[in-house]
Amino acid sequence: MKVTKVLFSMLFYLLSVSAIGVCAEESKDIKGLPEIRFGTLPVIQALPIFVADEKGYFREEGLNVNLIRFNSAMEKDVAFTSGQLTGYFGDIMTPLVLKANNTPIKIVSTIFDTPKNQRMFAVLASPKHGNKSISELAEEGLAISSNTIMEYLAVRLLATKKVAPSRIKFIEIKNIPIRLQMLMSGQIPSAVLPEPLATLAEQKGCKVILDDAGAGLSSTILAFHENFLNKNPDLVRRFHRAIEKASTFINKNHDEVRSVMNRECRIPENLQKVFPIPEFKRLVLPENTQVMDVYNWLKEKKIIKGELKYSQMVADGFLP
């Protein structure tokens, strides 16, 4: 068993044990409204959350929202598990792991699903390995962060090209900027990178081998603490309404939201004027098949051991 896998499992076990009974206690402002402490990440898929805050849509819905910005998913997950957050933005995987470790969390909506005309993750070959086949690159080395959505994506995307997981030589590089630099310099044959770094790497001579455009594999979600969902269902619906207002505004006002995207989503300077702003659709529940595929993959890797149903991981009834 890999050390990273052991550490991953131990971390979630310890965090979940410490969180049993912790229920994200509600603080209130002077109007008596429960404060929604919502964790975010500096990624493009979270843009409607930042725009909703910037445009005042949360206030219009009578909400007291405090956006808490994190630099990494791990920091965000620790904050949620220790009761410091009411809800958060992220990928599908981590809420399933937290739920399996007795943290009271449920996914309430999908905020973004990669369309056919835009990718959010890509498998890239270094400039020195651009002439290699997909199977050759997989066997020579693919840099990822193990036990994450990037490893899941790599396995599923390579499977579409008949490359079995047993043939993939994974190289553990958790720090994404370091992974990018090592890829561009040819120190590693290939890597999985998120946008906008995938586009930056492509501009620097790396070759895109596979991407997630239209694959239905990399949805990002909104999740809340179950105690908050049970006590404040209408506030969650209003939170969703504010997000949908922001999505509509983004789709109609690309020029106006570009500065927000550049700042909050950390777009590299040379891409700030040209990187395409995604289209955000209406909020929906994540597909049963997608959630269960991620869940089954986690079980195969023995990251999750218990039995969970879709209804235990996803909460219906909170869409606007």
Describe what this molecule looks like in 3D.
With 320 residues, the chain is of the alpha/beta class. It folds into two domains: 3-113 and 219-313, D-Maltodextrin-Binding Protein, domain 2 (3-Layer(aba) Sandwich); 121-211, 3-Layer(aba) Sandwich (D-Maltodextrin-Binding Protein, domain 2). The chain is built from 14 helices and ten strands. The protein has helices at 3-19, 47-54, 57-60, 73-81, 93-100, 134-140, 149-159, 176-184, 197-203, 226-231, 233-252, 254-264, 288-300, 310-313, and strands spanning 35-40, 64-69, 87-91, 105-112, 121-125, 142-144, 170-172, 190-194, 207-211, 220-225. It has a five-stranded mixed beta sheet, with helices on both faces. Helix 2 crosses helix 12. It is globular and about 60 Å long. Mean pLDDT is 91; it is low at 1-30.
Can you describe this structure in just a few lines?
The chain has 320 residues and is of the alpha/beta class. The protein has helices spanning 3-19, 47-54, 57-60, 73-81, 93-100, 134-140, 149-159, 176-184, 197-203, 226-231, 233-252, 254-264, 288-300, 310-313; strands at residues 35-40, 64-69, 87-91, 105-112, 121-125, 142-144, 170-172, 190-194, 207-211, 220-225.
